[in-house]
Write a structure and sequence with these properties.
heterodimer, A: 431 residues, alpha+beta, Beta-Lactamase, Helix Hairpins, Heat Shock Protein 90, 5-stranded mixed β-sheet, 4-stranded antiparallel β-sheet, 10 helices, B: 224 residues, alpha/beta, Rossmann fold, Arc Repressor Mutant, subunit A, 2 domains, 5-stranded parallel β-sheet, 8 helices, 14 strands, elongated
Chain lengths: 431, 224
């Protein structure tokens, strides 16, 4: 869930609950206020009635004959009058005109007429607001208010929070795009919010430190591989002198030969590591528009006798002539590694198909299934432990350098696909 | 033939010296910038093997001075850097070749012979080998004036073994010389073996008076 929505939902929910409580309190206070007003009117009426009844003889009888609309008078015994306590109630009275019972506010009290000495029970009532109706109406109104307010809060806070956090989202986007090996510190969004300034500063320091460490590491690898070249040269040269000297002795020659083989493997590994770190350190800056088909043809020529030896046929398909802005040496290294790989992981009488399509070049070869993670460093099948296993890592780092997407799948054949759709200038045959 | 080795790594310097002495060259050594500069400026050498990174200065500066002085000896840069940039600068300054460390002694031998051959005054790069004559400019081989048809790789194998004749050339060194750095898979040595076998057959059919010996599966040796 987005931070903005997360915050706003909570704010809105909290607000809604507060509104609910407040509405309930409001409703009861309102009802009390209405009843208080009614009760005061009824008390006035009672006092008026008592004053008149005590002063005017026959007032009660006359009133009873006329059946007043809002007073019920009933003569009661002294005992009953003794226990009757004056009280206000909300009651239902049937109104003939309305054909239904209506809610009324009623004052019930006992009264002794001073003129006659008789006891009466008096009930004064007045129609009042129907609480059900009030609840309904209040609910409608408040619901409307809730929705309107919640929506307003939701929209307004979303806009405000989003605007306030704009630099945060920008930073987030920049961070998503950030890649350590690009060595490019990202563009920090402008802001005058203190916390965001601090965030920018902290992220900047963190990234700079990381880039430094990363660069140091890369340079360290490059320097180390460089430094290893001379000792390797010494050992190889000395061993070659030794093998020359003892070549009459089969046993010694074979032992030294084993040492030399291992040394040569180490040498290749080292020079591949060096190449890899040079690519990653951006030491092949010159680029030109390279005809990839020409490069691939050159690679095929260089490997044709090796392919012929393994009786591997190389087929070319597709009429596209892709051109790419790339370093020519790296282009050669890229495709020579792929094609060398296609020959190495092939079987006798195998097949390599190079297909040129409008958006990609695919290099497919027959052979047994190998590991899935073909591009990681040191990925090696058990069958050829003598190869450095860096070939495809080199391919990957060249592809990364030019933002080319390379994918590998196994579908009866090993297939490497180099996506070139965006970057390519296609040239049709004869076009 | 006089060769100057400029190399600051003593062990390597010593090994190169031993090797070149066994090839019957006159060898002189320099292990730092100043003594190297001094020797290169005072004496004349047929070939100078020049390391770029030296204590006291850059080997490229020595190269520059030698060329300014108008000295005619060949210069082969030997560098641990193997960077294209150094190679281009070096060759631009007038170096004849560039060899990256680590190298095979047989490769060094072939490179030295190649640059020396190029400096020969008659301009005809011919090498007599038993009843064979190798023309390096035309890339042709004649056996008793009858041309022998070899493909590119076979020619390279033969000439590499010929420049290292009577020496044991390891399969690795041969493979790297002929197929470049591209060949880096162990199973490809069968392929080298196959190519040498083809070459041997062709030589035999043409009655060549040289033999390519297989030394315990380690390498090859060309003898007359």
């Amino acid at each position: 869930m987005k931070l903005v929505n997360h915050l706003i939902l909570r704010i809105t929910l909290f607000f809604a609950i507060v509104m609910l409580f407040w509405s309930a309190i409001y409703f009861f206070l309102q009802m009390k206020e209405i009843h208080d007003g009614n009760d005061e009117g009824l008390t006035n009426l009672k006092q008026e009635f008592i004053a008149k009844a005590n002063k005017i003889p026959g007032f009660i009888e006359k009133l009873e004959d006329n059946t007043p609309l809002n007073i019920i008078i009933k003569e009661i015994a002294f005992e009953e009058a003794g226990i009757l306590v004056e009280n206000f109630t909300t009651a239902k009275i049937y109104f003939a005109t309305e054909l239904e019972e209506e809610e009324v506010r009623m004052l019930t009290t006992a009264f002794r007429c001073e003129l006659t000495g008789k006891y009466y029970r008096l009930q004064f009532f007045t129609s009042t607001v129907e609480s059900n109706d009030l609840i309904k109406n209040t609910l409608y109104l408040l619901s409307g208010l809730w929705i309107a307010l919640s929506l307003t809060i939701f929209i307004v806070s979303k806009i405000i929070i989003y605007k306030a956090n704009k630099s945060f989202y920008k930073l987030l986007n920049e961070l998503k795009k950030f890649r350590l090996d690009n060595r490019q510190i990202l563009e920090f969004p402008e802001t005058n919010v203190k916390e965001y300034l601090q965030l920018n500063q902290s992220v900047k320091e963190l990234l700079e430190k990381n880039i430094d460490v990363f660069n140091e590491q890369k340079i360290f690898i490059e320097n180390t591989t460089h430094e290893l070249q001379t000792p390797l040269a010494i050992i190889i040269a000395k061993m070659e002198m030794l093998i020359e000297k003892y070549q009459s002795d089969k046993k010694i020659t074979e032992e030294i030969s084993d040492v030399l083989n291992t040394l040569n493997r180490m040498k290749r590994l080292n020079s591949n590591l060096l190449l890899l770190s040079k690519i990653k350190n951006g030491q092949f800056p010159e680029t030109s528009l390279v005809d990839l088909r020409e490069i691939i043809d050159l690679v095929i020529t260089d490997f044709e006798d090796l392919a012929a030896y393994k009786e591997i046929s190389i087929e070319k398909e597709g009429d596209y002539y892709p051109e790419l802005e790339i370093n020519k040496d790296l282009a050669y290294i890229l495709f020579s590694n792929l094609i060398k790989n296609a020959i190495a992981h092939n079987h006798q009488n195998g097949k390599i198909i190079i297909k040129y399509a409008s958006d990609c070049i695919t290099i497919a070869n027959s052979g047994n299934k190998i590991a899935d993670k073909v591009f990681s460093r040191y990925q090696n099948t058990a069958a050829d432990e003598k190869s450095s296993g860096l070939g495809l890592s080199i391919v990957k780092s060249i592809a990364d350098l030019y933002q080319l997407k390379i994918t590998y799948i196994y579908n009866t054949m090993h297939i490497f696909r180099i996506n070139i759709d965006q970057k390519i200038k296609q040239k049709r045959k004869n076009g | 033939m006089k060769i100057l080795i400029i190399e600051d790594e003593y062990a390597l310097l010593k090994t190169m010296e031993d090797f070149l002495l066994s090839e019957k060259y006159l060898v002189e050594k320099a292990a730092d910038y100043h003594s190297a500069m001094e020797k290169a400026m005072i004496y004349n050498y047929d070939c100078i093997l020049l390391d770029i990174s030296l204590p006291g200065g850059n080997g490229l500066k020595i190269l520059d001075e030698i060329k300014k002085e108008g000295k005619t000896g060949s210069i082969i840069i030997i560098s641990a850097k193997n960077s294209l940039e150094d190679k281009i600068i070096g060759l631009d300054l007038g170096a004849d070749d560039y060899l990256a460390k680590p190298f095979h002694l047989s490769e060094l031998n072939a490179r030295i012979k190649a640059v020396l051959r190029r400096k020969q005054s008659d301009g005809k790069l011919l090498l007599a080998l038993g009843n064979l004559s190798i023309d390096f400019t035309q890339r042709q081989i004649c056996i008793e004036s009858k041309p022998l048809k070899l493909n590119r790789k076979e020619f390279d194998i033969l000439t590499f073994l010929a420049t290292n004749k009577n020496r044991l050339v390891t399969k690795e060194a041969l493979a790297e010389h002929v197929w470049g750095d591209n060949i880096d898979l162990e199973d490809n040595f069968d392929f080298v073996y196959w190519q040498v076998k083809n070459l041997r057959r062709k030589l035999k059919n043409s009655n060549a008076k040289i033999t390519i010996e297989n030394v315990y599966g380690t390498g090859y040796k060309l003898t007359i």
